[in-house]
Design goal:
With 158 residues, this protein is an all-alpha fold. It has one domain (3-157). Helices cover 82% and strands 0% of the residues. It is built from 4 helices and no strands. Helix 3 (80-99) crosses helix 4 (107-157). The chain is elongated. The relative contact order is 0.09. The mean pLDDT is 90.
């Protein structure tokens, strides 16, 4: 495989992995809220159709985010575009919940789901920002240690 084609494959895989991670996280967040709602109603089972809808909408919106270059794991601040994507995502998930009757027509549960998904989006941004800061610090520490080792080796060879 030539270098240019391999570069495209690597880029696609990077995007695909990011979408998969966001899909899994979003699906888990929706499923958690849905299951807590079901438990509060006294039901210990979940509708498999609702679960399938959650996976599909999480996957679909994950690709929308990727195509809009609005990956929450890569932003440094919440500008207008980031807020728009966050609210569009929470709104899309809530609209899907309402259309497919995840909460049995319960307006309060649906509204709380919207607030919950906005909060989850904000937490995701914060967590990713903290992780990037930690990764940057570790990378800088590794570079400093490498430079010191390289300097020691050169200094001893003279």
């Amino acid at each position: 495989m030539n270098k240019k084609l391999w570069g495209l494959v690597e880029r696609w895989l990077t995007i695909k992995i990011g979408v998969e991670i966001r899909c899994c996280l979003t699906f888990f967040l929706m499923l958690f809220f849905y299951c807590v709602h079901r438990l509060l109603l006294g039901a210990a089972e979940a509708n498999i159709w609702h679960i399938s809808e959650m996976v599909m909408i999480a996957y679909l919106f994950g690709w929308v985010q990727a195509l809009l270059h609005a990956d929450f794991d890569e932003i440094d601040h919440l500008g207008l575009k980031e807020w728009a994507v966050l609210l569009l995502g929470a709104g899309t998930y809530t609209l899907t919940a309402w259309l497919f009757d995840w909460f049995g027509g319960n307006g309060l549960a649906t509204t709380l789901f919207l607030v919950y998904m906005i909060g989850c989006g904000l937490c995701t941004v914060l967590i990713c920002r903290i992780k990037r800061a930690i990764d940057s610090k570790l990378l800088a520490d590794d570079l400093k240690e490498f430079q010191q080792r390289s300097g020691d080796e050169r200094g001893g060879a003279i």
